[in-house]
Amino acid sequence: MVIPTANVTGLICGSCREEYTTNHDLNSCPKCGGALILNMNLTEMMGKISRDTFSDRGKDIWRYLELLPNIDRDRIVSLGEGGTALLQCRRLSKTLGLRRLFIKDETTNPTGSFLDRGMTVAISRVNQLGYTSLRCMGVSGNFAASASAYASRAGLKCTIHLAKENVKRLDLGKLYQIVAYGGNIRIEGESVDHSETGTPNEKTYTLSPGNPYFAVGEKTTAYELCEQLGWRTPDRIIVPMGHGEHISMIWRGINELRSLDLISGLKVAMTGVQLEEYASLVDLFHGSKSDEKYKGRCKTIAADLAMEKPAYGFLAIESMRESGGTGVKVKDSEVLDAMALLARTEGIFAEPAAASTIAGLKRLIDQGEIDKSEEIVCVVTGSGLKDPSTARRFIRKMKTIDAIVSQIESRRFTTRLGRTKIRILNIIGGRETYGYEIWSVLNERFKAGIDISSVYQHLSDLEKGGLIRRTRVESIMGKPERQYYSLTDKGRNILKSAVEE
Ligand SMILES: [Zn+2]
What we know:
The chain is α/β, with parallel strands linked by helices.
């Protein structure tokens, strides 16, 4: 029996409920700016689809083909996303005093985050429509990394537009991913590299986090975890909230499984986590109207959760309300503790945004808001390797390891330093000294044949790089002033690794 694929019957705004036809390639509601979701008609599938339908298929999200938008098989752009493990965490359960805790481990997705679930659907759709290039607007680091990877896989040229103020928030690992996958980064408000401008023949699709085809792929987290539990829901699912689409789509996915009689009940408390610095959805859920206070902030360890205007905010709050769940906010320090706890009890290295679910769980336990006999699933959304600077924080207190890492960092730096600069560091390292003396030593001891102005240029470079610092000025009658220099700790480290090589 051929089972029909779910019909996309149109688009509906998650905020004002305005409906649109699928002829529109819309990223957000033209009327109110809200996020759009695909209206899918599952009624034709009633009675034709069963748990067995999926049993002998591949593990990726296209296993649930009938419940995803209709895309020609040969136009699907996949990297094997989804099919992630649902890990029972006995050691962490014991530490937290819980009966049964699972982690849905999204760190193992192709680009290391759950967003690949949405990206495979969005890029497959773009591929189906015949576009040749992709432009990403208003996106987070993980979104940009995933988009760049899938664009490459589809042979699409990809440009990531970043607002100037968001560049400094980008986690280093995600930036490396974007660049490695060949995504062009364009900073808004700065001059455009000419080679990156589109040609007249190019057909460009604009993708933003409110894209309905992107969001719909994230339903599959719900399908998978229910199937992995033997086609039933847990008592609670805890999800980080950035734009709020993941929690909304998990709740929607569970409702679909229920409407198709694939699971029997809807008893699951959807629980969203935000950071205290950006907790507009949690505040709104608990009845506060003061979401204005989060505008313009940017200091947090989990930039992907720090959204001023969550695109799916309304739906996220609705899923917490309808399911009898709750919202919880956590501090950066709690997230760091949770990262370490999760990695050390269960061997799962999560990025801060992902570990926020464990921090949220702990907070709810401490506040007495969770029944310890509940069966709980925490969705751990992305890999810790995406954010090396946060991982680096763990090392600071460990003196031996910190010294090793400093040396590795210095060695990288040393390879960029020329022979003359290393000699100058050596001379200054011997004793506090000044430009003219350095010049004499370079020429006499090293036969460098260098002029005095070059020496001052090198000194200026080394000072800017934080390797040397000015100590004192000596004024001698009848002679020019002498500016003395000594090495900084950084300079000493770099010199040490340069010598060891
Ligand atoms: Zn609207």
